Amino acid sequence: MPIDPVVAFGTAAAAALIGLGVSHAIDGMSPQPRGPGVLTDMVTLAPGSFDHPQPGEFLRNNHPVPAPVAKETVETPLEIMKYQVTASDYDRCVLDGACKPADSRLAGNVPATGVSFIDAQAYANWVSEKTGEAWRLPTDVEWAYAAGERFRADIEGAAGDPSDPARRWLTQYRNEAALARKPEPEPRPLGAFGANSKGVADVAGNVWEWTSTCYVHATMSDGAVASSISNCGVHVVEGFHRTYMSNFIRDGKSGGCAVGTPPDNLGFRLVHDHAGFLRAALRRLGLT
């Protein structure tokens, strides 16, 4: 696979950009504090590999089967917000006319909830414009990597008897009930759920988080994906367990879960995209 020269020579390119007077150029892989307050609380994770149950719906002979597990690699340092975007930070985007008001009456130092995928994208675009850098939603793989031991994939019902799909659904409900999640209607203040072993806070609390990964409907054959169709009108949502939501849903309790108890709240956190920033800066300079 060809090496991306922007990633491979990121540090050298950043130094060149600084010399050319580009604002917000990075120092190595650590950005300077900037923008809305929550952007200053970041966690940088070293590259690494892990086994990851794939998101989506997987069928064999037109019957649901457990998701395949793939070895995923995060090839460059991943810088992700320590906390979810707060209601007060999201309100700044609303006041600036770049975001629609959230479907939540909460304000201050609590996660912004009642936001759709489109709202979360609008906020990421606004932050990117304000800082001159590249900010985006994490992929499902990036979110799971940052979640570490708190990651929980889809609630599976196992393959079961193909002639009795009801038994599989009952197994899924039993598996979710065994998790003993207690619904909590209101988001808690930042830090209420503590940090995981990687220093990322409030992972898998009572706020689910949007990712940029599209829902996939796949057909399995001989243990591998034979064909798949992506639906980017629905995105992967991560939290106490993985689920899927239409881009337009702002309140997780209104529906969208394939099975079991829907999310209490929908929020998000962003990653700082160093490669995206460098590419944009090089384009502005006419170097690409």
Q: Which CATH-level-2 architecture?
A: Alpha-Beta Complex
Structural class: alpha+beta
List the secondary-structure elements in sequence, H or E: HHEEEEEEHHEHHEEEEEH
Kindly identify the CATH topology.
Answer: paralog of FGE (formylglycine-generating enzyme)
CATH class: Alpha Beta
State the major sheet: 6 strands, mixed
Measured distance between first and last alpha carbons: 20 Å
Low-confidence stretches: 1-33
Overall, the morphology is: globular
Overall pLDDT score: 79
- β-strand number: 12
Helix content: 10-25%
Q: How many individual domains?
A: 1
Strand percentage lies at 15-25%
Q: How would you describe this structure to a colleague?
A:
With 288 residues, the chain is an alpha+beta fold. The protein has a single domain, classed as paralog of FGE (formylglycine-generating enzyme) (Alpha-Beta Complex). It has 7 helices and 12 strands. The chain has helices at 5-8, 10-19, 87-95, 117-131, 140-147, 165-178, 274-284; strands at residues 42-45, 48-53, 57-60, 63-64, 69-74, 78-81, 135-136, 208-221, 224-238, 243-246, 266-267, 271-272. The strands form 3 sheets. Strands 3, 4, 8, 9, 10 and 11 form a 6-stranded mixed sheet that branches. A 4-stranded antiparallel sheet has the order 1-6-12-7. A two-stranded antiparallel ribbon has the order 2-5. Strand 8 (208-221) and strand 9 (224-238) form a beta hairpin. Helix 2 (10-19) packs across helix 7. It is globular. The two termini are 20 Å apart. Mean pLDDT is 79; it is low at 1-33.
